TrEMBL record:
GO cellular component: cytoplasm
GO molecular function: metal ion binding
Family: Belongs to the GTP cyclohydrolase I type 2/NIF3 family.
Residues annotated for a divalent metal cation binding in this entry: 65-66, 103, 220, 224
SUPFAM superfamilies named in the record: NIF3 (NGG1p interacting factor 3)-like
InterPro entries given in the database record: DUF34/NIF3 (IPR002678), DUF34/NIF3_sf (IPR036069)
Keywords: Metal-binding
Identification of the protein by name: GTP cyclohydrolase 1 type 2 homolog
Length: 252
């Protein structure tokens, strides 16, 4: 079965409420390909490796979290950007990308999906008074040690996380997938025992240690694999088309 590309994009925009979210890049259809869609291939980042894999998988649409045309980047279509766009355009593959709309969505969002996998019960946003908050706060059913929770993260994500071990057991957790290390200050105010994100900055260590909490950096790519899969599955069910997630490994 095939559906119109315009129908697929319209539903994704509606479901994610994408047009109401201010972002650092355009959300939605970034590159237009063939007008009919039978197969979606999803992945985290529209790298050349993922483009090549999508081409081999005979994708009509490539659905990603990290697309193109970021604010402040060089707009010239040269080098890496030229090669990527050429792959899409020559092969009539559409690129559909959602950044912040895919982080904050209450069902298929990266933060919600990661919580489900780690056994965290969601309590609410990291900053309840801030409508632009990306991160969440929640709790575990039983307290665990920082090392035991880090082991859980490793088992779920398939990579060893960076752990800054605090003094107390872990019950209340704040988290923001990807490059959310800057939210550690809000997490401290929220009274968490541990803050989890994808990346770490030099000062993150000191913030965690001096405020007596644990910190985990589990990988930008690793923490953001699940939202795009969930969105692809939703669209595939909605329109009875095929969906294939391809994970191009990234250690960061």
């Amino acid at each position: 079965m095939a559906i119109a590309l315009s129908t697929l994009v319209e539903e994704a925009q509606r479901y994610l409420n994408a047009e109401r979210i201010s972002d650092y890049c355009p959300n939605g259809l970034q590159v237009e390909g063939r007008p009919q869609v039978r197969r979606i291939v999803s992945g985290v980042t529209a790298s050349q490796a993922l483009l090549d894999a999508a081409l081999e998988a005979e994708a009509d649409v490539l659905l990603v979290h990290h697309g193109y045309f970021w604010k402040g980047e060089n707009p010239c279509v040269t080098g890496m950007k030229q090669r990527r766009l050429k792959t899409l355009l020559l092969n009539d593959i559409s690129l559909l990308a959602y950044h912040l709309p895919l982080d904050v969505h209450p069902e298929v969002g990266n933060n919600v999906q990661l919580a489900h996998r780690l056994g965290i019960t969601i309590e609410g946003p990291l900053e309840p008074e801030n409508p632009r908050t990306v991160g969440l706060v929640g709790s575990l059913s039983e307290p665990v040690s920082p090392r035991d929770f880090a082991l859980r993260v490793q088992e779920v994500l398939g990579r060893e996380p960076l752990l800054v071990e605090g003094p107390q057991m872990i019950r209340r957790i704040g988290w923001c997938t990807g490059g959310g290390q800057g939210y550690i200050d809000q997490a401290i105010v929220a009274g968490v025992d541990l803050y989890l994100t994808g990346e770490a900055s030099e000062q993150t260590f000191h913030s965690a240690r001096e405020n007596g909490i644990s910190f985990i950096a589990a990988g930008h790519h690793a923490t953001e694999r699940y939202g795009v899969q969930a969105l692809g599955d939703y669209l595939a069910r909605r329109f009875a088309i095929e969906h294939l997630f391809i994970d191009c490994a990234n250690p960061i």
